[in-house]
Structure to design on (247 residues):
């Protein structure tokens, strides 16, 4: 199984994995330059984030700012894309996601560097489209498909709740499930078996989970798995999040 998504572990946490900061995540389009502003009131950008394709086919992120956002992936090289296609997968494209700490009618304030907690502002562009869910981008990302409202200039802003609920599944080490947030424990994964869950509700630092759709065979029939687990402690993520898989 090839996995494309966000897979975090305790080891990567120690190495400084991304944190759950602010309201949610902004996925930006890597086809067009993005002017960067220091504040919402600035009329002129202090820098511009540009994207170029190198000789191998990967995308380069060019800016005077030291970027360390939530996710920054160059995507496949031409060779890697061919290999993945031969495997029956897809060519994995570049991906850039920022944590959003503030948003208004005309801007997003995002974390540019999750280590230093530096921020900058991305202005909302006239003529661009801003989706609230990734599915909305998928539904409208075809220029000549019936019913598609295609716009090449797009952004996706997902709240943490939307993001977690649409992830294909989540897992957690040292798993304990509670009947309520901070309530009574109803299940503990003492055997540390692989248990992929779907998220049904988000309440602060807690998420309500159930058996992942199509993955019920991973669970014992006699156990109750419907309940609440803690997904973050402050800004530290405590779970592994798999956005999507190609099997």
């Amino acid at each position: 199984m090839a996995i494309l998504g966000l897979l975090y572990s305790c080891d990567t946490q120690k190495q400084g994995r991304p944190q759950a900061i602010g309201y949610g995540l902004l996925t930006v389009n890597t086809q067009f330059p993005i002017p960067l502003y220091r504040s919402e009131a600035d009329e002129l950008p202090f820098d511009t984030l540009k994207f170029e394709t190198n000789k191998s086919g990967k995308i380069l992120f060019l800016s005077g700012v030291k970027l360390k956002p939530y996710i920054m992936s160059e995507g496949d090289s031409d060779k890697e894309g061919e290999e993945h296609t031969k495997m029956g997968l897809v060519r994995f494209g570049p991906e850039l996601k920022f944590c959003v700490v503030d948003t208004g009618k005309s801007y997003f304030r995002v974390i540019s560097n999750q280590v230093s907690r530096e921020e900058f502002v991305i202005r909302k562009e006239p003529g661009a489209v801003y989706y609230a869910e990734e599915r909305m981008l998928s539904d409208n990302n075809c220029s000549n498909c019936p019913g598609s409202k295609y716009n090449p200039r797009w952004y996706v802003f997902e709240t943490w709740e939307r993001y977690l609920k649409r992830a294909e599944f989540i897992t957690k080490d040292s798993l304990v499930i509670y009947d309520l947030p901070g309530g009574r424990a109803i299940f503990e994964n003492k055997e540390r078996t692989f248990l992929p869950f779907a998220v049904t509700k988000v309440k602060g630092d807690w998420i309500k989970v159930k058996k992942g759709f199509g993955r019920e065979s991973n669970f014992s029939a006699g156990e109750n798995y419907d309940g609440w687990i803690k997904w973050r402690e402050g800004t530290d993520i405590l779970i592994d999040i798999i956005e999507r898989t190609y099997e």
